[in-house]
């Protein structure tokens, strides 16, 4: 007696994956290429820097044009990064749903999109702000793509340390947008974000260390011993706290910012030493989350200190 075959039913996993694919529109896929969450952090640092440079609130039109230009430049850099890294993104759990991995966007379309974004960024900044801000924004893109993405990311354990400089450029752009020049204050602000980046990113990399090993990316947590990882994270954290306080005399800041810098820095160090005692994914993600809160509140305090005294 023949046994009736059961109809083929897609697995729940396949259905869920298909649903996610259909749920993201073509526009949403292109937006995802720009890494919006990373851009948010860049914008958080730009506006307070402009407030310090202006010694008060700058004109709304200048703020909007600077943010639009900076956003377009960062979006272009992030898109090119995804094009270059699509081979390793498909090997990592954290990135395997990115549009270039799933096929929602082709590499050619993504590159055209990236070039268009960069051209628009330069146009907005040159016409609406000034040439120096445009040059700085373009230089950040070139550095992120050429130095970090194409060279250091796959070859050096110090990749995010050096490559992270690109993420610190928005403060220079913000300062240049207001003053048309640079000075010691934006340089120190650049240094704050530069030394903030390693402990911030390495904390995330600890959780996803198996991904980096699978993709053969020499991110520090994937190639170093726990003691070395946490030691370097603490070195950069101490440098961060120091530079955040150096900013007080350099930028002529007041008590509000100084107290915030001390309290927020102490919290960062507490999280860092806790991770050093017991390095595990839960503690690393706690440090990662705190690092975002730290940067946000530090720059909010920076702007508030200037505005309440202006």
Characteristic key phrases:
mainly alpha; Farnesyl Diphosphate Synthase; 16 helices; 310 residues
Task: Describe this entry's structure for a reader.
This protein is mainly alpha-helical and 310 residues long. 79% of the residues lie in helices and 0% in strands. The chain is built from 16 helices and no strands. Helix 4 (60-84) runs parallel beside helix 8 and helix 8 packs antiparallel against helix 10. The longest helix is centred in the C-terminal third of the chain and has 29 residues, at 281-309. The model is unreliable at 1-23 (pLDDT under 50). It starts with 11 loop residues before the first helix and ends with a helix.
Walk me through the topology.
Blueprint: H1 12-23, H2 26-33, H3 36-54, H4 60-84, H5 86-89, H6 99-102, H7 107-128, H8 131-152, H9 159-163, H10 169-179, H11 184-207, H12 209-214, H13 220-223, H14 226-251, H15 255-277, H16 281-309
Helix pairs in contact: 3-4, 3-10, 3-16, 4-7, 4-8, 4-10, 7-8, 8-10, 10-11, 11-14, 11-16, 14-15, 15-16
